[in-house]
Amino acid sequence: MKVSFIRNTGAFGKGTPLEIYQNGIKVAVLESDQAITLEMEISSTFQVKSGWLESAPFLVRKRLGHAFYEVAVNPTIVLDYGVSLLVFPFLGLLSQPWFVDCFILLPVGIFLLKTSKQGYLIKELSGDGSKS
Predict the structure, then answer these.
(1) Tens-place pLDDT, residues 11-32
(2) What confidence tier does 120 reach under pLDDT thresholds 50, 70, 90?
(3) Is the distance from CB of 98 to CB of 106 less than 8 angstroms?
(4) What is the DSSP string of the chain?
């Protein structure tokens, strides 16, 4: 079955290529604002990764013809990292002693690690590749 991946990149992550994995095996690299078509088996899973950000595994479903998927950065990730970059430098100024910072940073770090597994969203497009 033919599957096309379309990457419409905004400013965040523009210079970083995405790796496409089928059943855990790297099959392609998707650059910024690029479309790529692959032959994939029905009932196989695919996932996109870039650094430590990745998408949730996505199952290729049986359908007639060609399947189109758009890959985009999760907007929640952009917001989370933006807030983190603004807040972290000021933690040392706001809290004393240092171990209080650890109690603040630990949950934030765990949250960022959990959200990194949903760093990219995969959205199925209509049959001709346009947004539905």
Answers:
(1) 666 778 899 999 999 999 998 8
(2) confident
(3) no
(4) -EEEEEE---STTTT-PEEEEETTEEEEEE-TT-EEEEE--TT-EEEEEETTEEBPPEEPPP-SS-EEEEEEE-HHHHHHHHHHHHHHHHHHHH-SSHHHHHHHHHHHHHHHHHHHTTSEEEEEPPTTSS--
- Which structural domains are found in the chain, ordered by start? 2-124 (2.60.40)
Tens digits of per-residue pLDDT, 56-111? 998 887 767 788 889 988 887 777 767 777 776 666 666 566 666 677 777 777 77
pTM for this prediction:
0.74
- Estimate to the nearest angstrom the gap between the alpha carbon of 15 and the chain centroid: 14
Q: How many CA atoms lie within 13 A of 31 on its CB side?
A: 1
Distance CA 30, CA 49 (A): 10
How would you class 82 by CB atoms within 10 Å of its CB: exposed for 0-12, middle for 13-18, buried for 19 or more? exposed
More confident residue, 80 or 131: 80
